[in-house]
Amino acid sequence: MRGRLSNRGAMFSYVSLEDRTCRGRRRARRWMGGRRGREGDQTLLKVRKRIEGAFWLKTVGAGARRASLGGQSWRERRFCKRCGHRFRWRSVWSASRMSDATTHELLRRFVWGVPVYRQRFGALVSAPAIECFYRRVRACMAWAEEFREPFAGAVEWDETTFGGTRHGKRGWGAAGKVIVFSIVKRNGQVKAMPIAAHRRAEGMRPIQAHTREGALYSTDEWHAYATLKLRGEHVVIRKEKGKPVGRDPINGIEGFWSYAKNGLYSYRGVPRKYFHLYLGEVCYRFNHRTEDLKPLLVKLLKTTSIQNISPKLVQSR
Predict the structure, then answer these.
(1) Within a domain: residue 151?
(2) Which among 313, 272, 242 is positioned nearest to 164, based on CA atoms?
(3) Could you list the residue range(s) of the whole structural domain that residue 224 is in?
(4) Backbone φ and ψ of 192, nearest 5°
(5) Could you give the number of structural domains in the chain?
(6) Taken in order 167, 168, 172, 173, is the CA torsion positive or negative?
């Protein structure tokens, strides 16, 4: 039984195949070729499904087809050239159910750094809707930063902790803190990622993934960096009275830590399971600090699939 739209498009009237004209039944008997029994019943079922599908595509309007296919026309669905599997591609921009004017205004406030709690009196939509939209924007920014090419040349590595003031143990084992590794290139680009613990294995994994062999590494005196000589040239920067002492240090990592912590301070606390998204946002803003973010984010949201950022919305660990 199929649903069919009326002429006005406001009501659904369910019309079965038997209540339509006899043309379809006669055509089905002619296609069956006189077959009877179980084989004839299966053939009749296939013919009925084919006729109902053709009748639905012919009679139902394009708007109803687009609504039934998740916002896309049945002709706009894509398929794999290898296996023929059909799928729907939806961008993050089109996945939002808000109007374009509302989306542009929320994106403008996001670029200005206005948190959701400051929009409670002049909000265009509800606070949960704004949070969901901003979370997707941060996921797109973090997803774009992951595809940045590995750094080469002179780079600097350092680690720090993010989190509020806690009573009790201090240092790398403090409760409620997130350990973050960051790498800064000579031209000002940066990459940052949270790690599970302050151990050598956790620290060397991002170095191998985000830097090329033969680079000039500038690090502190942590013993985990001793094996960097196998990948390139290693320079240890020692600090005296808070100032680095060594061979032409970049000293840009401290500036990024200040930029990141001051940027996250305006949110008055960040959920732990979404911290990697906020960190990706900070890196994206830092790497595009000399550009206008509004057109960049509009293009990013319209060219990023919603399926790509779904695994990044919640941190796995």
Answers:
(1) yes
(2) 272
(3) 144-312
(4) -145, 145
(5) 2
(6) negative
Q: What is the mean pLDDT of each run of 10 residues along the chain (317 residues)?
A: 40 39 55 53 60 47 45 54 70 89 94 91 88 94 90 87 74 77 85 86 86 87 83 80 58 84 88 91 94 95 88 63
Closest by CA position to 283, among listed 171, 205, 201, 206:
206
Look at the alpha carbons of 32, 38, 41, 45 in this order and tell me if their dihedral is positive or negative. negative
311 touches 124 (CB < 8 A): no
Q: For residue 87, give the DSSP letter.
A: E
At 86, the amino acid letter reads R
Residue 46: what pLDDT?
63
Backbone φ and ψ of 30, nearest 5°: -70, -35
Q: Has residue 298 been placed in a domain?
A: yes
Residue 68 corresponds to which tokens in the numbers above? 């039934």
The total number of residues written for the chain in this structure: 317
Q: Are residue 190 and residue 287 in the same domain, yes or no?
A: yes
Q: Which helix (H) or strand (E) holds 64?
A: helix 62-68
Tokens 């369910």, located at residue: 14
Residue 317 lies in a domain: no
- Name the phi and psi angles at 62, rounded to 5: -65, -30
Strand order in the sheet with 216-219: 190-195, 178-185, 154-162, 216-219, 233-236
**Residue 61 falls within a domain, yes or no?**
yes
Cβ atoms 63, 82 nearer than 8 A: no
Write out the DSSP string of 163-232. ----SS--STT-TT-EEEEEEEETTS-EEEEEESSSSHHHHHHHHHHHB-TT-EEEE-S-GGGGGGGGTS
